[in-house]
Design goal:
This protein is about 45% helix and about 20% strand. The chain is α+β, with helices and mostly antiparallel strands. The protein has four domains: about 5-50 and about 60-195, no CATH class; about 215-250 and about 570-665, Roll (Chitinase A, domain 3), CATH 3.10.50; about 255-265 and about 470-565, Chitinase A, domain 3; about 270-470, Roll (Chitinase A, domain 3). The strands form six sheets. Strands 6, 7, 8, 9, 10 and 11 form a six-stranded antiparallel β-sheet that branches. Helix 3 (about 65-80) packs across helix 4, helix 9 packs across helix 24 (about 675-700) and helix 10 crosses helix 21 (about 570-600). It starts with 11 loop residues before the first helix and ends in a 7-residue tail after the last strand.
């Protein structure tokens, strides 16, 4: 770093601030992208009780007030940079996630920066803003409109003069500067970590050898799977002892299991008919509307008003021909597609710079280089299609493996410049009469094609009012009644499953649900269920009330409450039994192999004494750990690469077999360029390090996310 960055005298930027009294830097989204990592220090709330806790970080509670303050600050910043923006639930969810990550950063990651005394001097800020090294994002925001070059005087004038009109100038500038500085410190931290990554010549050579070299070996083994002994019994105490000895592998967090039913409230036929009548009324009013964009907005259309001109292929096939044959002002519809009723109005007609055409094709694969034979096969197939022996659509569905598969070979509308299909095929579609078969070659093979429309350059500007078919109050009530009947019966004498079968419902299960890592199969918004499930009053065997999540009704029952600790032995019994049985087999087989080995000098001799066959492995490698008659066994595979040429191993107690390994040769291989390997390994290590360093820091902080308590 330049020595000037150690000079703490007042920077030019600070002088400008002092002269102007207050500053505002409203550079918008492009400027905010300058911030490399969103880090904001948040003070502790005076409310720190567990009842107000939204989670824990490093064993310290995070209050709702602290979280909400951070979240509201982000929203305020978003609104300031995007006046008039409508903040829906998706945006709110995104910014709640960002607020949570910012608090994690401030509590867990920022202290790591402080330990290393990482700071940003005023001289650095000056240099990256109005100095000789203005950051590219700032340059992008202050370009000359004519030359498109960065105009530093514009930036200085903006800071010195243009921002004085806003009374919130100083506060906003300080907020930006805080984030900006935090981003620079984060960048320094990452660079510091990355600079510690280095690959030695020996590491590179070993890496190249391990990934390229193979070895010729012979193995004589006694696979455990081939040895049966009914006397080998594993006791419960042995299973428990093994599980405790390997507790890191078999440890699990506290969790709960549930069984539940789900009633998806779907519109009835009557609801669909009602929507049809409403759509017909909309169509009539649409035809009389003078301002189409306003009408689309008033009707709360799923599709916002779009001024752009649409090409052929932009609309559902069921309505597209009607749209492109209509005149300006015509209203088409209502049209029902995938549960949505749509009404279209042609607002203008235009012309595309390139033509479009619709076509279909069948691809005949070329065997080897015999393209001529493939063309003959294509012409025979055309004759069969014309004779009625088969159909174009059936052959296309059998032979095609592109986007036209399952569509009878239909390629849809193709614009002249598309690259979705081979150029020769497209050219023939544009030059062939409609409905006439042709044969053409491409790099993919031989195509039978046909043009299925006239060439079109027409484009249309269309206003759309489309609305989903929603269940009526009556329909919703009927589903709620079923849920209520289920709840009433499940609280009686019958089991959850019996009641579900009686009412024609499907019982589902969700196991090992962790409070801070919610995961319910098939439920995208599990918070309402989690609030009930992890309530202190909810016990094993309890049944929930009717829970409404996005138009679906749920009733659930707690089937198991598990504390933190070892996994239930019954869940891991089979796995551990297999391991322990193999260990017992290993003990019984060891003496047999040891005696045979003492009287043998070669693999063949050893194999004969064991009444087995030596297995030759001409090219053993790290990439392939599966061994003939043994399977994947990393212990045996690893031993192969630790033996000198011409030597034999001791008896190896593998995961799947006892084995003796004879290393015959190191196979020759072409050594990789060490410099290239060092660069590749270092780059990959830096990427892994950059990803893992933050994950490791956060993992050590024992982050517990309980936001579900406050949000649906």
């Amino acid at each position: 770093m330049s020595n000037k960055y150690n000079n703490e005298e007042q920077s030019v930027l600070q002088k400008i601030q002092n002269q102007t009294g207050c500053l505002l830097l409203v550079i918008g989204v492009a400027m905010l992208a300058f911030v490399l990592t969103d880090l904001v220090s948040s003070g502790s709330s005076i409310f720190s009780s567990n009842d107000n806790s939204i989670g824990e970080i490093a064993d310290q509670p995070v209050s709702y007030d602290e979280f909400n303050q951070t979240f509201e600050g982000l929203k305020a910043q978003l609104i300031q940079n995007n006046p008039g923006i409508a903040i829906d639930e998706n945006i709110s969810k995104q910014y709640r996630e960002q607020a949570w990550n910012m608090i994690i950063e401030s509590r867990v990651v920022e202290p790591e920066y402080e330990k290393l005394a990482l700071t940003v001097s005023p001289a650095e800020l000056e240099d990256l803003t109005i100095g000789d090294n203005t950051h590219p994002q700032i340059q992008q925001s202050f370009r000359d409109p004519e030359s498109n070059q960065f105009d530093k005087q514009r930036l200085i004038r903006f800071l010195k003069e243009d921002i004085n009109a806003n009374p919130d100038a100083l506060q906003n500038w300080n907020s930006f500067q805080q984030q900006f500085t935090a981003g620079l410190i984060a960048q320094k931290y990452n660079q510091l970590i990355m600079s510690s990554v280095y690959t030695t010549d020996i590491e590179a050579v070993n890496f190249g050898r391990d990934n390229n070299q193979t070895k010729n070996a012979t193995i004589v083994s006694l696979p455990y799977s081939q040895f049966e002994d009914s006397t080998l019994i594993v006791s419960d105490s042995e299973i428990l002892t093994y599980a405790k000895a390997h507790s890191a592998k078999y440890k699990e967090d506290a969790s709960r299991d549930i069984e539940f039913i789900r009633l998806n409230v779907t519109p009835s036929k009557e609801d669909s008919m009602d929507m049809m009548y409403q759509s017909k009324e909309i169509a009539q009013k649409f035809s009389e509307a003078n301002d189409d964009s306003v009408f689309v907005s008033i009707m709360n259309s799923e599709t916002p008003f779009n001024k752009s001109y649409q090409l052929r292929g932009s609309f559902p096939a069921s309505v597209e021909d009607d749209l492109f044959s209509a005149n300006v002002g015509d209203v088409i519809g209502p049209n029902q597609e995938n549960g949505v009723y749509s009404v279209y109005k042609i607002t203008d007609i235009g012309s595309d710079s390139l033509p479009s055409v619709r076509g279909s094709h069948i691809l005949i694969n070329v065997a080897g280089s015999d393209t001529a034979q493939a063309e003959k096969d294509a012409r025979k197939l055309i004759a069969q299609i014309k004779s009625g022996a088969t159909t174009f659509e059936a052959e296309a569905n059998r032979k095609n493996y592109d986007a036209s598969r399952g569509k009878g070979g239909d390629m849809g509308w193709i614009r002249k410049d598309t690259r979705s299909y081979p150029r020769r095929l497209i050219n023939r579609l544009f030059t062939s009469p409609k409905g006439q078969y042709f044969v053409t070659r491409s790099k993919k093979g031989v195509h039978i094609g046909k043009t299925t429309s006239k060439i079109s350059r027409k484009t249309i500007q269309v206003a759309v009012v489309d609305q989903k078919i929603f269940p009526s109050t009556k329909t919703d009530g009927e589903y709620y009644k079923i849920a209520g009947e289920f709840l009433s019966k499940v609280n009686g004498d019958k089991s959850f499953e019996e009641v579900a079968e009686e009412l024609g419902l499907t019982k589902r299960v969700a196991n090992k649900i962790n409070e801070s890592k919610l995961a319910f199969p098939g439920i995208s918004k599990p918070n309402p269920i989690a609030k009930w499930l992890f309530n202190d009053a909810t016990k094993e065997g309890d049944v929930s009330s009717i829970i409404d999540i996005d138009g679906s009704y749920f009733v659930a029952r707690v089937t198991n409450v598990k504390s933190e600790g070892l996994v239930d032995i019954e869940e891991i019994r089979t796995d551990i039994e297999a391991i322990l049985v193999n260990e017992k087999k290993s003990e019984k087989l060891f003496s047999k192999l040891d005696d045979a080995l003492n009287d043998s000098n070669t693999p063949d001799e050893l194999a004969r004494k064991l009444e087995t066959t030596p297995v030759s492995i001409p090219a053993a490698s790290f990439a392939k750990s599966s061994l003939p008659y043994i399977g994947s066994d990393l212990i045996i595979s690893g031993t192969i690469f630790g033996l000198p040429v011409g030597s034999q191993s001791e008896i190896i107690r593998g995961e799947r077999a006892l084995a003796v390994i004879y290393l015959n040769n190191d196979n020759q291989y072409e050594a990789s360029d060490v410099k290239v390997l060092k660069s590749q390994i270092t780059d990959q290590s830096k990427q892994d390090m950059q990803r893992k360093i933050r994950e490791t820091i956060i993992e050590k902080a024992n982050v517990v996310d309980l936001r579900y308590r406050f949000y649906n």
